[in-house]
């Protein structure tokens, strides 16, 4: 089963799925992309055999609306750590000279397409077998390498100094907190996130989501909703038997190269398959 939940402010992604595990008595559960505790918005959760399909959606594009405050910085690039404010003279000068047009030009020029960023040291990235944020809080020095990300769209929502609100669609692995810091630096100021909300995961938007306290077992999302690019097929019994047995066999059912297929037996999904080198190969079996 898949659920799309609205994660509230202050709750970690781990705590959110733990709540569902307890509520529904679920043995196996996972999600398709962590949200920081101070972030809100969409968290796509998979349970039981559906967790086998997480790897086919966890690389999805994600969209965020976020507010950057430009008068100070924090070690975590958000409000999880204390703010060190800029000198009052710098702030007052920016208040009179920084315009919506300057910000628009900056984000369209430097924060669009493929760029490099350094993730926050206060992050769940693993270094030497440890989470980076654990190392930082233990007083250890943390050095995280640059990584390439992609920003597919960027839009200035509003600006009222010292706060600017932006909407972005980004690739997997993008840290919005790092973008906030970098925007501040590009403007000759300092930036940190004061609001972060995930409003879309690929094609899944908030109209499909439910509040974590209100969600029921009737609120599951179907596989054809989660994976609209996968074709659904219902082959004959002989083919189903081969799939149940985990066999690789000649492509006699007309699968196209480069495509994925969800296989149904009656009303139940049983496999995710593909064609490779002229053979039908199983990507995941027993998926429902």
Would you write up a description of this structure?
By secondary structure, the chain is an alpha+beta fold. It has three domains: 2-59 and 203-221, Pseudouridine synthase (2-Layer Sandwich), CATH 3.30.2350; 62-201, Pseudouridine synthase, CATH 3.30.2350.10; 229-285, Archaeosine Trna-guanine Transglycosylase, Chain: A, domain 4 (Roll). It has seven helices and 19 strands. It has helices spanning 13-24, 88-97, 100-110, 132-137, 176-186, 223-226, 237-244, and strands at 2-7, 29-31, 40-47, 62-69, 72-73, 84-85, 113-117, 126-127, 130-131, 147-160, 163-170, 192-201, 204-205, 210-211, 231-233, 249-250, 260-265, 268-276, 279-285. The strands form four sheets. Strands 1, 2, 3, 4, 7, 10, 11, 12, 13 and 14 form a ten-stranded mixed sheet that branches. Strands 15-17-18-19-16 form a five-stranded mixed sheet, covered by helices on one side. Strand 17 (260-265) and strand 18 (268-276) form a beta hairpin. It is elongated. The model has no long low-confidence stretch (mean pLDDT 94).
Number of DSSP helical runs: 7
* Overall geometric form: elongated
Task: Give the CATH topology of the largest domain.
Answer: Pseudouridine synthase
Low-confidence stretches: none
The percentage of residues in β strands lies in 35-45%
**Record field, number of beta strands:** 19
Report the mean per-residue pLDDT as an integer: 94
CATH class designation of the largest domain:
Alpha Beta
Structural class: alpha+beta
**Proportion of helical residues:** 10-25%
Q: What is the rounded distance between the termini?
A: 7 Å
Instruction: Output the helix-strand order.
Output: EHEEEEEHHEEEHEEHEEEHEHEEEE
Sheet of most strands: 10 strands, mixed
Tell me the CATH architecture of the largest domain. 2-Layer Sandwich
